[in-house]
Specification:
The chain is α/β, with parallel strands linked by helices. Helix content is 29%, strand content 13%. It has three domains: 290 residues, Alkaline Phosphatase, subunit A, CATH 3.40.720; 83 residues, Arylsulfatase, C-terminal domain, CATH 3.30.1120; 52 residues, no CATH class. It binds calcium ion. The site of calcium ion (CA) has 6 residues, from loops. Pfam families: Sulfatase, Sulfatase_C.
Length: 578
């Protein structure tokens, strides 16, 4: 018998027609037709599943999630980028629905990707670290954690409705064999487990591998060259072909598909192929965006050519805000928003977002729904006629009523760094309980998450606690978070009255997952073989932490000896300066 979560996940839903439209003339007939169609195939799915002999049931819609890497809210023409170099994405928005208030779940790659595929805040799935307050974490090569088996990923659940799933591009949910995407529901993979940093010397640290399904087919900077000097790499073209081939094959086989196109040309070091290099007014970063835009145009064109556009739901967004530490040469734009990647200001968390499903989502709509990357999980299940698992907290909303009927749902947005709840938005009000950009130490070395944007008392370089008197901003009037409301104002008190109970409820119910992204896993560090990356900052950090503890556990003792053997720390003062 299937375990309970499987049973919960496989329930095909027939919820009856959506409730009547609420007075939106613009949405009228098209939305009604979409609702009717969605309802019809759900009914057929249920009848079919119940063995009532229904044959030839229409397929649930294909799902195509286009996830960008470090692309900012302000990088598309439709979001106001002055060069207007994204005609295909702008057209996609004109044919679909734009979400100006759409958020990721963490301002860093790994946790936000885990959130998309699980529908859960990273604090629940374990995609955080306990190594330091408010510390963001991800999965570089030496992190041994990854997506736990206990998490249910979107492709695993979609399998129950007959979907074939492929991920193209960056996985970033763990590089060890047990975390491989094909062990977590994907049927196919072409891409890498990590960022395309490098080149490395291939001795102490190998270049990042590239996989086709189970097989490693090469490495970045070797079989898959990236020229750091010129910015030339053919990767976006390869990822485009992977997408087009997959779509054609699934269409020919009449199978519903889920394609997660998680490409990374806009993550530093940014790259583009030769025909796009030097073509943007924005420099190399713009070249990368132009190639992505062109590729999205080709993908949507293929869907039309194959006559499956009306049966394919497409959503475009990014995993976190633009990396301003690399801007303007290697990083994008967060438009009017404060700071960028790594921070819980709007620039780190608010993302470009476009939904496209011709004949269903009415064209040229702007939705002010507060949306989240985690909604893509729940919405995709809804499209497949599935319900989210009932045995765990799910943070994603089903956005279909928003997209098909224009309905708005009141919901908070939680902004985490690591395991620290930094801020919460409800409606137009955002309350910061902690402010922090990066440490003074880093800042003095030239690392700046908010270049040219310092706001006194807001973009702080020490961790400032405001849990008793949060900093509150009205994001409608002040999207750049520059003018905190006066704590003596009625508006401030009203805003807190709305937000405080939401925070209390969230924190009381929260059950954090086992942290997966600690750089300092004692059991692993005890193995001196694991210290082969001994020059890396995370190993140095871990050794320093191990040496500072007094624990007498076996793992701890072995880890201490391994660190000492690796020559990282000689029990003396050197560690304090690492
Ligand atoms: Ca990213």
């Amino acid at each position: 018998m299937a375990p309970p979560h499987r049973q919960a996940g496989r329930v095909a839903r027939f919820a009856g027609p959506f409730p009547p439209l609420r007075g939106s003339v613009a949405l009228g007939v098209v939305a009604m037709a979409a609702v009717a169609a969605a309802t019809r195939w759900r009914l057929l799915l249920v009848l079919s599943a119940a063995g009532l002999g229904v044959t030839g049931a229409p397929q649930p819609p294909n799902i195509l999630l286009l996830l960008m890497d470090d692309m900012g809210w302000g990088d598309l023409g439709v979001y106001g980028e002055p060069s207007r170099e994204t005609p295909n994405l702008d057209r996609m928005a004109a044919e679909g629905m734009l979400f100006p208030n759409f958020y990721t779940a963490n301002p860093l790659c790994s946790p936000s990707r885990a959130a998309l595929l699980t529908g859960r805040l990273p604090i629940r799935s374990g995609f955080y670290t306990t190594n330091g307050h408010a510390r963001n974490a991800y999965t570089p090569q030496e992190i041994v954690g990854g997506i736990p088996d206990s998490e249910l990923l979107l492709p695993e659940l979609l399998k129950e409705a007959g979907y074939t799933s492929k991920i193209v591009g960056k996985w970033h949910l763990g590089h060890r064999p047990q975390f491989h995407p094909l062990k977590h529901g994907f049927d196919e993979w072409f891409g890498s487990p990590n960022c395309h940093f490098g080149p490395y010397d291939n001795k102490a640290r190998p270049n990042i591998p590239v996989y086709r399904d189970w097989e490693m087919v090469g490495r970045f900077y070797e079989e898959f060259p990236i020229n750091l000097k010129t910015g030339e790499a053919n990767l976006t073209q390869i990822y485009l072909q992977e997408a087009l081939d997959f779509i054609k094959r699934q269409q020919a086989a009449h199978r519903p598909f889920f394609l997660h196109w998680a490409i990374d040309a806009t993550h530093a070091p940014v790259y583009a192929s030769r025909p796009f290099l030097g073509t943007s007014q924005r420099g190399r970063y713009g070249d990368a965006v132009r190639e992505i835009d062109d590729s999205v145009g080709k993908i949507l064109h293929l869907l039309r050519d194959l006559s499956i556009a009306e049966n394919t739901f497409v959503f475009f967004t990014s995993d976190n805000g633009a990396a301003l530490i690399s801007a303007p040469r290697q990083g994008g734009s967060n438009g009017p928003f404060l700071c960028g990647k790594q921070t819980t200001f709007e620039g780190g968390m608010r993302e470009p977002a476009i939904a496209w499903w011709p004949g269903h989502i009415p064209a040229s709509q702007v939705s002010h729904q507060l949306g989240s990357i985690m909604d893509l999980f729940t919405t995709s299940l809804s499209l497949a006629g599935l319900e989210p698992p009932r045995d765990r907290a799910i943070d994603g909303l089903d956005l279909l009523p928003t997209m098909l009927q224009g309905r708005l749902t009141d919901r908070p947005v939680f902004y985490y760094r690591g395991n620290t709840l930094m801020a919460v938005t409800r409606g137009q009000y955002k309350a910061h309980f902690w402010t922090w950009t990066n440490s003074w130490e880093e800042f003095r070395q030239g690392v700046d998450f908010c270049p040219g944007q310092n706001v006194s008392g807001v973009t702080t370089h020490s961790q400032e606690e405001h849990t008793k008197l949060p900093l509150v901003f009205h994001l409608g009037r002040d999207p750049g978070e520059r003018f905190p409301l006066s704590i003596a104002s009625t508006e401030y008190l009203d805003a807190l009255r709305q937000i405080t109970p939401v925070v209390r409820q969230h924190q009381e119910a929260l059950v954090p997952g086992q942290p997966q992204l600690n750089v300092c896993n004692r059991a692993v560090m005890a193995d001196s073989q694991q210290l082969h990356h001994r020059g890396s900052p995370s190993v140095l950090f871990c050794c320093r932490e191990i040496m500072a503890t007094q624990s007498k556990s076996a793992h701890e003792g072995a880890a201490r000896r391994a660190c000492a053997e690796a020559g990282q720390l000689s029990l003396g003062h050197r560690g304090r300066h690492l």
